[in-house]
């Protein structure tokens, strides 16, 4: 792997120069960004994925929906449709993408839309008869044609962006100094017992700027598996097969092992669209457990009693009230 990185490093330099110039053109106003007079919050990362954007979007929805009409806008990665679509709970993942469908089914009262053109998507959402008062942009940190009023940047505990490299030698979509655009930086997937000393070390390595605030979150796994109707306590699930199509399945695998569960693992790439041959292989197994995102893509191919997922959520390890107040204060600019 180290040899491959060295071979790809010259291409990373070229890619970094191109992306860096593009960002500077937006900073200097040579390339235009659309600004808005209502709250737009973007959640994103510098890396290729696996930082926990979906749980963070869900956290923000939960926080804001009691007082605001909330809308979410995603690209709808790997969907087989184009343009703007406003989701219905009856949509399928292949039409709208797995993560947007997850948002809609979990929060049916929230406006959930997809559009690869974020400017057009925002315009379409605001043209609805009952438009959203706050819009959450999912995975749009590099979408500079939209200037969000508040930017949240996520970086995973085990893969902090200062330790990574630009594509293709590494996993960064843009140079690490792109983090300077963020209002808030959140270190995700931290151990729930992370020490203050380690937090301080991470803060120094991230070189947090004066205008930014740093927070730490972890993943809380529920103590049951569910298919949306039935719940099975995790300690009663003895034999099953694990199916994942996410960027970083290792934390989930480790969590299951820590609970004495060591399942056969079918691992696929992030947002994987399952082929009929792959589905036939999985149908031969007795019981399947997957992630909630994968569940959205798989549930139409299996009976409910055969397919379950393990729910997760984001938990703040400190300063939760401070973060909540930051978001509510910004949303109050409606």
Automatic annotation (TrEMBL):
InterPro entries associated with the record: LpxK, P-loop_NTPase
Pfam families tied to this protein: LpxK (PF02606)
Gene: lpxK
Gene Ontology MF: a single term: lipid-A 4'-kinase activity
EC number: 2.7.1.130
Keywords: ATP-binding, Kinase, Lipid A biosynthesis, Lipid biosynthesis, Lipid metabolism, Nucleotide-binding, Transferase
Entry similarity comment: Belongs to the LpxK family.
Record's catalysed reaction(s): a lipid A disaccharide + ATP = a lipid IVA + ADP + H(+)
Native source organism of the sequence: Mesonia profundi
Pathway stated in the Swiss-Prot or TrEMBL entry: Glycolipid biosynthesis; lipid IV(A) biosynthesis; lipid IV(A) from (3R)-3-hydroxytetradecanoyl-[acyl-carrier-protein] and UDP-N-acetyl-alpha-D-glucosamine: step 6/6
Protein name: Tetraacyldisaccharide 4'-kinase
Lineage: Bacteria, Pseudomonadati, Bacteroidota, Flavobacteriia, Flavobacteriales
Function, as annotated: Transfers the gamma-phosphate of ATP to the 4'-position of a tetraacyldisaccharide 1-phosphate intermediate (termed DS-1-P) to form tetraacyldisaccharide 1,4'-bis-phosphate (lipid IVA).
Family annotation (NCBIfam families): lpxK (TIGR00682)
Domain of life according to the entry: Bacteria
PANTHER family: TETRAACYLDISACCHARIDE 4'-KINASE, TETRAACYLDISACCHARIDE 4'-KINASE, MITOCHONDRIAL-RELATED
């Amino acid at each position: 792997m180290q040899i491959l990185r060295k071979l790809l490093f010259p291409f990373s330099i070229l890619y970094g120069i191109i992306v860096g110039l593009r960002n500077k053109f937006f900073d200097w106003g040579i390339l235009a960004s659309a600004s808005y007079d209502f709250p737009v919050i973007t959640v994103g990362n510098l890396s290729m994925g696996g930082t926990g954007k979906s749980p963070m979007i869900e956290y923000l929805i939960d926080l804001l929906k009691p007082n605001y009409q909330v809308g979410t806008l995603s690209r709808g990665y790997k969907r087989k449709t184009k343009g703007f679509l406003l989701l219905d709970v009856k949509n399928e993942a292949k039409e709208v993408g797995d993560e947007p469908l997850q948002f809609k089914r979990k929060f049916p009262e929230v406006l959930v839309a997809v559009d690869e053109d974020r400017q057009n998507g925002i315009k379409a959402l605001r043209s609805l008869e009952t438009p959203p008062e706050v819009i959450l942009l999912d995975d749009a940190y590099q979408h500079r044609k939209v200037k969000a009023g508040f930017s949240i940047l996520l970086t995973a505990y085990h893969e902090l962006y200062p330790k990574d490299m630009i594509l293709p030698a590494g996993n960064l979509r843009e140079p690490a100094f792109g983090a300077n655009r963020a209002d808030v930086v959140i270190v995700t997937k931290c151990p729930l017992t992370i020490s203050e000393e380690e937090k301080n070390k991470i803060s120094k390595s991230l070189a947090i700027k004066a205008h930014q605030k740093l927070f730490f979150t972890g993943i809380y796994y529920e103590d049951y598996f569910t298919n949306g109707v039935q719940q099975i306590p995790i300690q009663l699930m003895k034999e099953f097969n694990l199916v994942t199509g996410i960027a970083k399945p290792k934390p989930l695998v480790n969590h299951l092992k820590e609970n004495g569960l060591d399942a056969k693992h079918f691992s696929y790439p992030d947002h994987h669209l399952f082929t009929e041959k792959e589905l036939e292989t999985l149908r031969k197994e007795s019981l399947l457990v997957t992630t909630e995102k994968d569940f959205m893509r798989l549930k139409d191919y299996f009976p409910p009693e055969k397919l379950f997922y393990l729910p997760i959520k984001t938990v703040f390890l400190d300063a939760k009230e401070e973060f909540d107040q930051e978001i509510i204060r910004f949303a109050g600019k409606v």
